[in-house]
Amino acid sequence: MCELHLYSQDQEHDESYLMGDREALLRLRSMIDAALIEENCQAKGEFFVNDGEGYHLYIKVMPSEWMDKIQLPYADLDVIDQLTKFHPSAMFTGDFQPDGGELCTIERID
Questions:
Q1: Which helix (H) or strand (E) holds 33?
Q2: Is 53 exposed, middle or buried, given 0-12, 13-18 or 19+ CB atoms closer than 10 A?
Q3: For 54-63, which contacts have Cβ atoms below 8 Å and span 24 or more sequence positions?
Q4: Coil, strand, or helix at residue 31?
């Protein structure tokens, strides 16, 4: 069913986990490979949680100098600096393009 579970860190130094069935992990690998093919490229794929709910996962290669401009990935809202950083979703909507470059989008990875 392509089930993939992503468990984020709550705070600094906490563990994070990525767990999925074989189909999901193969799709994730394909998405990563596709995003790495071309500069400024991104990939989008559909996955499911084991309760049957689906979601989209987006992957984008980010230049190192941009990484300090996005929000920290912690789940604990007390740790997140939401006022001065961009949410990662802005990278995929075109709202955040520091260099004004064009995006290469790969919509579906099977």
A1: helix 22-37
A2: exposed
A3: 57/4, 57/6, 57/28, 57/31, 58/88, 58/89, 58/91, 58/92, 59/31, 59/32, 59/35, 60/35, 60/91, 60/92, 61/35, 61/36, 62/91
A4: helix
More confident residue, 107 or 23: 23
Neighbours of 43 (CB within 10 A): 26
Any idea which residue has 């950083």 for tokens?
Answer: 85
Q: How many CA atoms lie within 13 A of 79 on its CB side?
A: 12
The model's pTM: 0.73
What does the block give as tokens for 33? 């490979």
Q: Are 17 and 80 in contact (CB under 8 A)?
A: no
Give bridge partners of residue 4 from the DSSP assignment: 20
**Rounded to whole angstroms, how far apart are CA atoms 69 and 88?**
10
The identity of residue 96, as a single letter, is F
> How does pLDDT run across 7-38, given as a tens digit for each residue?
988 888 888 899 999 999 999 999 999 889 87
